[in-house]
Every structure is written in C-alpha cells, then in structure tokens.
Automatic annotation (TrEMBL):
Source species taxonomy: Eukaryota, Fungi, Dikarya, Ascomycota, Saccharomycotina
PANTHER family found in the cross-reference section: FAD-DEPENDENT OXIDOREDUCTASE 2 FAD BINDING DOMAIN-CONTAINING PROTEIN (PTHR43400:SF7), FUMARATE REDUCTASE (PTHR43400)
Keywords: FAD, Flavoprotein, Oxidoreductase
Free-text comment on the cofactor: Binds 1 FAD per monomer.
A GO molecular function held by the record: FMN binding
Residue stretches making up the FAD-dependent oxidoreductase 2 FAD-binding domain: 5-449
Protein name, UniProt field: Fumarate reductase
Listed Gene3D superfamilies: FAD/NAD(P)-binding domain, Succinate dehydrogenase/fumarate reductase flavoprotein, catalytic domain
Family per record: Belongs to the FAD-dependent oxidoreductase 2 family. FRD/SDH subfamily.
Catalytic activities: succinate + NAD(+) = fumarate + NADH + H(+)
Organism of provenance: Maudiozyma saulgeensis
Protein's job: Irreversibly catalyzes the reduction of fumarate to succinate.
EC numbers, comma separated: 1.3.1.6
Keyword Oxidoreductase in annotation: yes
Cofactor(s) of this protein: FAD
Length: 469
C-alpha cells in the first residue's frame, strides 16, 4: 500500500482507528483535524466508558453480560437506530476495555452505574485524571511519539479542514480534499478514509434544520462540533439516519456569574450515578429517579421545575467527593458547585423547606429500603448521621444540548452505507458521533467513548483486512 489511510478527526474515534491501524497492523496513517489541538469532545468526557462482563466487574462481583447491556441499549433507543450496531457495541464492549488496559496500561478499575443501566458498568481509573482526558492523552501520546520517530508511519495534520472526498466512477475512494488555515487547498491521495469528525451540537444551523425546538438551549459541545462530516457524507449519498435525535443532557452546570452563557460545563453523570440527587427549586424536594435515562430526567426538569429558568439543584454528599474529588474540586474552582451546610443551603438557594426537613429527607433517601422514585439504591454518600450542620455539595443545573445520535449510517464493519444499505464507496468508513444507528433515540451515559473505541478499532481492522486482500 503506497498511500496512507486518512482519518478525519482527532477525538477518541480517530485515535482508536489510528492506533489500531498503526499498532496492530503497521498501516501508515494521516490524522487530520480542523482544530489546533487533539481531542475533540472526547477529551471532556467525565463519567467513563462502558464495558459488560469485564474483569473489573468480575473482581467486584458484579454480574453483567453483553445481552443485558444490549437490552438496556435497545430500551434506551426507543425503537430507533440499528440493533445490529447496538449488538456489536455491547458484545465488543469488554474487548474495548481490555484493549485500553492491555495496550495502553490504563487501569479503568472503578465502576459507576449511570442512568438507564441495570448494573454498574461504566469504567474509569482511580487517579487524578478524568476518563476522557486520560484515555485521549494516552492514545494521542503514542501517536505523537511515532509521528516524531516514524513520520513515514504517522502524520498528524492540525488546522486543516476537510472539504470533500474524491470518489471515482467505480465508487472507489481516491483522495481527500482539505483547506489549511491560510485558505490554501490541498488533496491527499488515499484509497481509505475514516470519518471521525464528531457531531453537530454546536451548530445553530444544523439544529435549526433537524431539531429547531432545541436551538435556544445552551450546549456542552466545543466550537468545532459543526457537522462538517455529516454534510460531506450526505452530499456523497450516505443514508443519514436519526438526524433529528439530539440528546439533551439534564445537568449542564449554571455559572451564577454568567447565567445566560450559551456554553456550559457538563455535570458528569457519575455525580448522580454515585448517589447525587436533584431537587426542584420550587419545592426543595426530589422529583425524579435520577438514574433513569437522560431524556426522562430532562423532561422532568422541563415539566416540573420553574419554567422561567429551566433549572434544578444537584445535591451531593461527602462520599461522592471522596470518589470524584478532582471533578468536584474543579467545579468548585469554577464556582459552579458550593460546599455548604444544610442550613446555609436553605438560605443561599432560597429553598422553601426547613433545614430539619432537609436533613430528614436526606436521611430517608439514604436509609429507605425502597426509593420513592424506584431509583436503584447506591452507597450512602451523605453520612450516617445527617444533621442541619451536615455539609453538602450543591449547584444549579439546566438541560443542555449534548450529543447528536444521528449521522451517516454504518454497518457492523464501520463502512458508510447508502440508502439501500450497501457500502457507499469502497474505502469509506466512519466511527463515533459522525455515524448514526448506534444509539437510536437516546444514548446511554458511558457509551460515547465506547462507541469510539469499538467502531474505530473495527474500521481499522476492516481496512487492514481489505489491504491484505
């Protein structure tokens, strides 16, 4: 093979594809991105990566299986998406975790149960780094080192926006067109291209086209998330599936000094997964199972909490701080979360309950045999003796545009397909948020990083097998 594989996007999908091609198959690659740095939205992922029937689960005596994970995923998808892709996601999930552990020495030794999951299966490492940052930085370092020592094998090209893919009359990929930051146009000759360019959650134009009711919501997406890959693939004739399925995450953190900001830090789902609760500002009471799927929690905030500012309070105890110290320290540094006593929380957040009532509610939540909202019981995190002086961590949250489930439909080999379900062109692949069919109407927390690894590695293996043929 004389020409390199071109991988568009440097989030985890692109990094997984690149590492699989280079590390396992010794296939040369060009990693290209319009941004000035590597990582995309993946670098900000804060809860972890899913895996079913993993060694870590077995060590912690958690019974899980790909079948149970598939059941949860299909239920969350609400009849949309592609079940064969969901089946592959769940069956390959433990392989993705093992690959990260064995090939890159990532621990991924802690577990959380996020919304919509039947058991704890979202893995992250014990240590100081958030999971997205840890995984992305580890995988990108390997490629950066190779780009220095073996430039014939790895080339990383940033500040370069892909504008088109060349396909000949026999439907073979022949090249990728891009524009550098000075506006100069170039073409890279290649027989294989993998789109890993992310979603479109930052683009008001795309949201107006596919989900106009969400256009006024803030977003967690970086400014690079504008659907460039979807637009190119649609023009080429890809089957664009579930493009109107845009996930609104219930817990974007509100900055009290800039409440109307259009961009929000995400309050990691692990905060709720490990025991955090949501309070209605107008009652000071819980109002939803915080561990149901994101769409249901979002709908509860939007229908039950004050409509003027579309917000709720996220409340956590010391036990969560001990597990997610780095997350909470960062949120407190940014003044998005405060540590206060129950008495002070009542005053500062104008909750319409007494401190004694607040303490009683938290005690009931922490000790009841059955939760009032049928939430799976989790480890106590507010302490054994909750008093009005007990300190909690509290912040305002609001629903935010977070993830676009739709995109160019792929098959289980990560090939982009046309409206007839056939490969759109020989050598054309996609992985990650640019693709569609993996999540249906609602994505489970922890499955975005997983999707990137599973289908990025699949694209790499499919290309390597095609080259050998």
């Amino acid at each position: 093979m004389s020409n390199p594989v071109v991988i568009i996007g440097t989030g985890l999908a692109g990094l997984a594809t690149a590492n699989q091609l280079v590390k396992t198959h010794n296939v040369p690659i060009v990693l290209i991105d319009k941004a000035a740095s590597i990582g995309g939205n993946s670098i900000k992922a804060s809860s972890g990566i899913n895996g079913a029937h993993t060694t870590i689960q077995e060590q912690q005596q958690i019974v899980d299986s790909p079948e149970l994970f598939l059941k949860d995923t299909v239920k969350s998808a609400k009849g949309k998406g592609s079940e064969p892709l969901m089946d592959k996601l769940s069956k390959d999930s433990h392989l993705a975790i093992e690959w990260l552990q064995s090939e890159f020495d990532l621990k991924l030794d802690l577990l959380a149960q996020l919304g919509g999951h039947s058991v704890p299966r979202t893995h992250r490492s014990s240590g100081k780094l958030p999971p997205g940052f840890e995984i992305v930085s580890t995988l990108s370092k390997y490629l950066k080192d190779l780009a220095e020592t073996k430039p014939e094998l790895v080339k990383i090209q940033l500040d370069s926006k892909v504008t088109d893919v060349n396909i000949d009359g026999e439907r073979n990929v022949t090249g990728v067109q891009y524009q550098d930051k000075e506006g100069n146009k170039h073409t890279i000759a290649t027989s294989y291209v993998v789109f890993c360019s992310g979603g479109f959650g930052f683009s008001k134009d795309m949201l107006k086209r596919y989900a106009p009711d969400l256009i006024d919501l803030p977003t967690t997406n970086g400014s690079q998330t504008t659907g460039d890959g979807q637009n190119i693939l649609e023009k080429l004739g890809a089957d664009m599936i579930d493009m109107d399925q845009v996930q609104v995450h219930p817990t974007g953190l509100v900055d009290p000094t800039d409440r109307s900001a259009g961009w929000k830090f995400l309050g990691a789902e692990a905060l709720r997964g490990l025991g955090g609760i949501l309070l209605n500002p107008s009652t000071g009471k819980r109002f939803v199972n915080e561990l149901t799927t994101r769409d249901i929690v979002t709908a509860a905030i939007q229908s039950q909490c004050p409509k003027d500012d579309n917000r709720a309070y996220l409340v956590m105890g010391q036990g969560i701080y001990e597990v997610l110290k780095n997350n909470l320290d960062f949120y407190m540094f940014k003044k998005l979360i405060k540590k206060v006593s129950l008495e002070d929380a009542i005053k500062e957040y104008n909750l319409p309950i007494t401190a004694e009532e607040f303490a009683k509610d938290l005690t009931t939540y922490s000790t009841a045999d059955k939760d009032a909202f049928d939430r799976p019981l989790v480890t106590k995190n507010f302490g054994d003796s909750i008093k009005t002086s007990t300190e909690i961590f509290i912040g305002e949250v609001t629903p935010v545009v977070h993830f676009t489930m739709g995109g160019a439909k792929i098959n289980t080999d990560s090939e982009v397909v046309n409206k007839e379900g056939k490969p759109l062109a020989k050598g054309l692949y996609a992985a990650g948020e640019v693709s569609g069919g993996v999540h249906g109407a609602n994505r489970l927390g922890g499955s975005s990083l997983l999707e990137c690894v599973v289908f990025g590695r699949t694209a790499g293996n499919s290309i390597a097998n095609s080259i050998k043929c």
